[in-house]
Amino acid sequence: MKHVVCFSGGKDSTALILWAKENLSEFTAVFCDTGWEHPLTLAYIAKINADLLDGKLITLTSSKYPKGMRELVAIKKRIPSAKARFCTSELKVLPMIEWLKTQDDECTIYQGIRADESANRALMPEREWSDDYDSLVVRPLIAWKAEQCFALMAEKGVKPNPLYLMGAGRVGCFPCIMVNQRELKALMKTMPDIKTAIAELEAIAERSFFPPNYIPARFHTGWDPKSGMSFPKCKDVFRYIEKTDEDQLPLFAPTSCMSVYNLCE
Ligand code: SF4
Predict the structure, then answer these.
(1) Which structural domains are found in the chain, ordered by start?
(2) N or C terminus: fewer CB in 10 A for the chain?
(3) CA of 22 to the centre of ligand 1 (A)
(4) Using one digit for the tens of pLDDT, what is the confidence trace for 96-111?
(5) Which atom of ligand 1 is least distant from the CA of 36?
């Protein structure tokens, strides 16, 4: 039996690595690289790999889109969205399924999902069979609070991903297509390069990074003649977010990505 631990560079999966070191005799840690992670996340993952995993972390990339998010967006000519999260399926889930098929042993997959992250995750059992993975999935942290993850890291002398201190509510791609307005405002202050990254993806797709209802329509400057609808270009969103006080922005909890798979955080 092979124990496979999903790792993304976020607090929960880092805590999961620490849990695995104490509770599994041996395990394989796997990271799905979308080519769209922040350099600080990649540096953090490299450090965890060196410090905790003896350099044995397995990094998976998409065989269909080996250059990651930019290539995916260029070929599909659209940016993923909350309703069409093909970034997760193409860049994370399918590479994992492909890799699992190459294993010559049965696998048990460990995910750092916590019930208090969302109503959806609260319904997830600690153990269940996954037909997609053709494997048993175990969630040892399902009853944990975020504070326990940080506490375990502190106890073991492992610092969290520095992006948390810079306003990121969750760590995965940078920026995630599901970034919310408050998080975006915080990140625009601490990491102005987020604007360049978003503008780059928009230029590749020739489509908006943000959904039509991300900001009020009166601030839109984009117009889609096919649908007859306006849409916000990224510069509209940046301008709106910059001039709107934080407490006027919607208070949404950081969103979760394809929660049954837990490959994004
Ligand atoms: S972290 Fe966000 S952008 Fe990255 S794969 Fe998940 S949903 Fe897509």
Answers:
(1) 2-155 (3.40.50.620), 166-248 (no CATH)
(2) N
(3) 29
(4) 999 999 999 999 999 9
(5) 4
Contacts of 191 (CB under 8 A, 6+ apart): 38, 166, 167
Residue whose token pair is 């360049």: 196
DSSP reduced 3-state for 187: helix
Residue 73 Cβ inside 6 Å of ligand 1? The answer reads: no
Contact between 160 and 150 (Cβ < 8 Å): yes
For the stretch 120-123, contacts whose Cβ atoms lie closer than 8 Å and that sit 24 or more positions apart, written own/partner, are: 120/256, 120/259, 121/256, 121/259
CB atoms within 10 A of CB 180: 18
- Give per-residue pLDDT as tens, 37-54: 999 999 999 999 999 999
Question: What residues contact 256, with CB distance under 8 A and at least 6 apart?
Answer: 117, 118, 120, 121, 170, 264, 265
Dihedral of alpha carbons 65, 68, 74, 80, sign:
positive
| Token pair belonging to 2 | 């092979």
Q: How far apart are CA 251 and CA 145, in angstroms?
A: 20
Of all protein residues, whose CA lies closest to atom 3 belonging to ligand 1?
A: 176
